Amino acid sequence: MPTIDLTGKAAVVTGSGRGLGLAYAHALAAHGASVVVNDVDEAVAEAAVKSITEAGGKAVAEVVPVGTAEAADRLVARAVEEFGRLDVLVTNAGILRDKVLWKMTDEDFDAVITTHLKGTFTCARAAAVRMREQGEGGSLILVGSPAGQRGNFGQTNYAAAKAGIAAMARTWSMELGRANITVNAIVPVAATAMTETIPAFAPYIEAMRSGEPLPDFLRKGEGFGTPEDCAALVPFLASEAARGVTGQCIGIGGDKVALWSHPQEIRAAYADGGWTPGALADAWPTSVGAEPQSVGIPAPKFPEA
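That's the SDR family oxidoreductase sequence above. Prediction below.
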């Protein structure tokens, strides 16, 4: 089994004061990387740094809300000032403002897009500039979501941002390939503050926090586990072992890891001279429209009582 050694590398993990982001920061530090922890709450960020250093890792905090170019520059500069370089960026920071389309305000939409999508863009841009200057490659690890792959009821803003993040990963993998900078999107599924609000999951998460293991139908069947279950993917993608992995959307959760497909044409039909609306109506049911694609995140398959 290859040894994942990130000694000498420096990483920035946005939104890493708690939850998945904290698990990513711990995993990077445990494999030797020095980490800039980021959160909007100073006390939370400092507690995260303390937990990493007490475990034998190296970390500092930078308290700033991501979204602006100034915030991104601060995060990159902190890594360079403290550790002399930047090798890994994990764009985990995010917020939720869930509402159905007709109730979602401009403020709801803009806040989520700013943090998730623009925050990913500005941080990745600043990191790419630094990594290209260093000339030694690097890793951009963008955090996506099943909602960005399939859509999700009540999450116009979040799903749009996460879909955009997947598209940026593919685009940047091409643009940064010559600089030996890999770019991938990860699609984690874990017991977090968001998923514990789903009634079907709540009793299992409560039992887990009481010391009971999650059942196999969740860990394997649904790929659902703890934030720590998702964390292994990050040091792997940051390592030399994954130097040939780029432009991918990779799901992880529980005992499961999976590669998401990229959108592609699945059926086609042709009409000499082009299509008319009537010809489309006639051909649709038996040609390209014969097997319409599903939408939304599939409901968990819980065992029958």
